[in-house]
Every structure is written in C-alpha cells, then in structure tokens.
Design goal:
heterodimer, A: 250 residues, alpha+beta, Ribosomal Protein S5, domain 2, five-stranded mixed sheet, five-stranded antiparallel sheet, 10 strands, B: alpha+beta, OB fold (Dihydrolipoamide Acetyltransferase, E2P), Ribosomal Protein S8, Chain: A, domain 1, 3 domains, six-stranded antiparallel sheet, flat
C-alpha cells in the first residue's frame, strides 16, 4: 500500500457514474463461492471475490487446546485470519501482526453471536482464514468463506453471515470497494449481517462519513449482503445435491 | 423455515417461526420439525458401537478420540482385562485402536464408553477408513446388505463404527478394494441403487483376484485373515441399529 508509489489519485468515478472497473456505485464485484473444497477439515469454503482469493477451514467442535481456555458451559470460537506472503504485490512479512490479530478477533466475535455454542460445552470451534490474494475487502470475504465453512462443518447456528464493505469514493457512497477505491477513497465500512434477525455482527469504519452518509451506507450494505447471502446458500446446495444424471448412469 | 410445528433437533424457534440451525434435510416428525444433518462431527448416542484411537493414557483410564466433539474416557473397569492402577499403558498405548460402545452421556458433554460386550475389544492389524458419520447407514445398508456385499466380494473382515470409522482387515488386495468401495459410498451416498453399483465395482475388479466373487464366502474371509486374528469382530450386521437406517438418508 504505502509502497505503491502512485502519487496521483486515480479518477475513482467517471462523469457517467462508472467506477474504475466499470461498475456502478451499487454493484458488487463478481463473487464465486465453493463449499467443501478441503477434505481434512470438518468444513471448508473457497471464495473468489473480484481479485480476492480466500480459503477458510473449520475444525470442531473439538478438544480445546490450551486447556485453560476451555469454558464449562459452551464452546469457544477461535479464529485465525492470515494473509499469505504472496497475497499482496510487495511481499508481506508472514505471521501475526496487529492487523491480522484485530481481524481475527472481530471475526471470532461475529461468529460467537450466531453459533449455538452452548450445545458443545468445553470444546473449541476453530476457524482458519487464509487470504491467498488480496484486493480490499478480505475480512468480508473471510467472513463469507468462514460462514459457509461453518455450515459445511455442520455447526448449528442462527444463520449464515454475509458480509460486505461499503465505502465513500469521490464523495459518493459505493458498495464493495476494490483496492484503488479503498486506498484513495474517503471511507471504508466493512459490515456483516445476520439476515434472519437483521442484526449486524461486525461493523468497523475507517475514514469519514456524515451521519446521513453512514445510514445510507448501511442500507446499501444490507442490500449487498442479501445478494451475497443467496450465493452462499447456493454454494451449499451445490455441494450437497447430486447431479440429475444420478440413477442408471454407469 | 416453516410454521406450525414445534422445533426438534437441528432447529430453533424465534418469533413463532422455526428455522434450521444446521445444514441438512427437513424431516417433519409431528409434532416436531427436525433437520437431519448432512455433515458435521459424530454426535454420540448411547449404545452406539464406535471405533476409537487412544490419545492419552492416565492412571486409571485412557482417553479415546472417537471423532466426537470431545475425547471419551475408557475406564480400566470397562475392559475385560485386570488392569492395575498406573499400568494402563501395558494394555493400550497411544495410537492403538479399539472398538467400544457408548454407555452414557452427561449434559456436560462427557462421553462414557465401555469395552465390555460382544464384538468389542482392541483392534489388531487391518486399516481404519474414515467416512462421514452421516453416511454410515448407507455403508451398512438395509439389513446389512452393503456390508455383506463388501465382505462377500473382497473376503475382507469389516467392522463399522457409528462414528464413521470402518475397520478393514484381510489381504492387501481385499483392503484396497473394500476401501475403494467405501470411497464410492462416500461420494455417491445419496444415489439410489448404490449396493448394485458397489457390487458391480467389486465384481469388475475381482478379475485381478484369483478367487471369483461367488466362491468368496464369509468363511473364506476368516481363512484369509492374517494370523493375528482379532477378537470377536464378526460380520458387522449384528451391530446395525435399525433406527439408523432411516428414510431421511434416502432422499434424492
């Protein structure tokens, strides 16, 4: 990011109202979700969202590893968000940093409020999110992937958790920022929604918005989440249905 | 997501509506609405026969990984051996596998297992293949038909745990073909006519084998078993829980 070297701010919004990749303000990047690509994990999902590629794996409920973390009345949810060294254009130093710790924490807390953790006392549900390629909005892609992976792992929860970032570019509220829009825009607001209850389980903001812009951004984000939600459900259906050729075909 | 019935397993209720909490097949069992999970870890039920692997040896008990959310303690009094306190490792060591029965579950999630009973004991030799616990009814087949097919055509000795672990013993070729049959079941578990499919696979591969499938009876299975013969793990059909061969798994 800092090393991009681009001193000039790109034109984020054309006079026709198109963004640098040709989208309108309320359009998502292309999203493809695959449920269950990994076999060793209890549940998994792979998400390609614009230029983001994110893999999530879920283990558990299983024995809690550092024993003292065990809770007698419920499962704990442990999340590890990690960016691969090759996920960005300049090599990222591998391992934990402040940013990935923060993201791990907010994602774990988002899932704590949807998973029925009381059903599995003294256990741990471990969520691993690996960002293979990053292009802004990786925490949202991570939440989407992790949520599909949790469902694939058969973990009881209130609902799937779609997530998207809304932002402000060239003075306008825009859905699902890509890298240049995130870097040169005025604000970025990642959020995650529980469609069943309408509750937000993750919301962060960087930059500036007026209260009125914020409420418009949230409305736009909710609309985006709804369409992501449908794709998440479809990914799970595809994983668990058999092609119609089934009987008879040798 | 429908109304009128009361929430059963795999569901929850908010504001008079019942929602699914797990990914699975909807199965109304009035007055309850339940969702049969299609995935997930093994959730133990009393009387299930399961295959476990020792993960820890303590003074008076072993801890077994049975694929459940928690490790299951096997107390030394639950074995056919006369174990002295502190000598558990003389009987079972870490990585040994056993076939045990779930005895009791308590609300804290603790799983009590026993090795006392027919067909239970330490597993020696053979291979353990893991399939999804949701597929076990298909692995066993209606009235044990699938297991019969596999043992008949391969000559392997097979023991099925409700936790999705299947122990196979026999000649290397028998083990290979039986595991391949299990992989077929795992991949195509929702399709109809699966027993026939598995049978035709086994027949088609038996040419590499000297004995024809018709002559490979259950007796030959025992003859073929390597010298370290295993306790009383018989043809697995005795262990079929009729309830586990439910209609819900036959969807699609």
């Amino acid at each position: 990011m800092g090393s991009v070297g681009a001193k000039e701010v790109p034109v984020l919004l054309s006079p026709e109202g198109l963004r640098i990749d040709g989208r309108r303000l309320d359009e998502l990047r292309p999203l493809r979700i695959q449920a269950g690509p990994l076999h060793q994990a209890d549940g998994s999902a792979f998400v390609e969202w614009g230029a983001n590629k994110v893999m999530a794996a879920v283990y558990g409920p299983r024995e809690v590893h550092p024993r003292h973390l065990q809770q007698n009345n419920k499962a704990i949810i442990q999340c590890k968000y990690n960016m691969a060294a090759f996920s960005v254009d300049e090599r990222k130093r591998p391992g934990l940093d402040r940013r990935s710790q923060e993201i791990s924490k907010v994602i774990a807390e988002a899932f704590e409020s949807v998973v029925f953790a009381e059903e599995f006392p003294r256990t741990s549900i471990d969520v691993y999110i690996e960002v293979l390629q990053a292009n802004a909005g990786t925490r949202c892609a991570g939440v989407v992937a992790a949520s599909v992976a949790l469902a694939d792992a058969g973990i009881p929860m209130v609902d799937l958790v779609p997530s998207v970032a809304v932002g402000k570019i060239a003075g306008q509220i825009a859905l699902d920022l890509k890298k240049e829009e995130d870097n040169f825009g005025e604000a970025d607001l990642p959020m995650a929604l529980v469609p069943q209850s309408g509750r937000l389980v993750l919301m962060q903001m960087e930059g500036h918005m007026t209260p009125e812009e914020l409420s418009r951004a949230l409305d736009l984000g909710v609309v985006g989440c709804k369409s992501i939600y449908e794709k998440m459900k479809q990914a799970l259906r595809d994983r668990y249905t058999v092609d119609a050729v089934a009987p008879g075909a040798a | 997501m429908s109304q009128g019935l009361r929430p059963g397993p795999g569901t929850y209720r908010v504001g008079g509506k019942v929602y699914a909490s797990v990914l699975g097949l909807l199965s109304p069992k009035p007055p309850f609405l339940q969702v049969i999970p299609l995935s997930g870890r093994y959730l133990p039920k009393p009387e299930d026969v399961v295959i476990g692997t020792v993960t820890d040896c303590q003074g008076t008990f072993w801890l077994l990984d049975i694929g459940a959310p928690r490790w299951a303690p096997l107390h030394m009094t639950g074995t056919p051996w006369n174990v002295e306190i502190g000598e558990t490792e003389k009987f079972l060591r870490v990585r040994d596998s056993v076939i045990v029965r779930v005895e009791n579950l308590d609300p804290t999630g603790r799983i009590g297992v026993t090795m006392l009973g027919d067909g239970l004991g330490k597993l020696e030799g053979g291979t353990i293949v893991t399939v999804s616990p949701a597929r076990i009814p298909r692995v066993v087949g209606r009235g044990g038909s699938m297991i019969d097919t596999i043992t008949r055509h391969t000559g392997a000795q097979v023991a099925v745990g409700q936790n999705g672990r299947v122990w196979i013993n026999g000649s290397p070729d028998a083990i290979l073909r039986a595991s391949e049959a299990l992989r077929l079941i795992e991949e195509q578990g929702q399709r109809r006519g699966l027993t026939e499919r598995v049978e035709s696979y086994l027949v088609s591969t038996s040419s590499s084998n000297d004995r024809g499938p018709e002559t490979a009876s259950r007796e030959s299975a025992h003859r073929d078993a390597p010298p370290h013969h295993v306790p009383p793990v018989g043809p697995a059909d005795e262990r079929i829980d009729p309830d586990s061969v439910g209609p819900g798994t036959d969807e699609y």
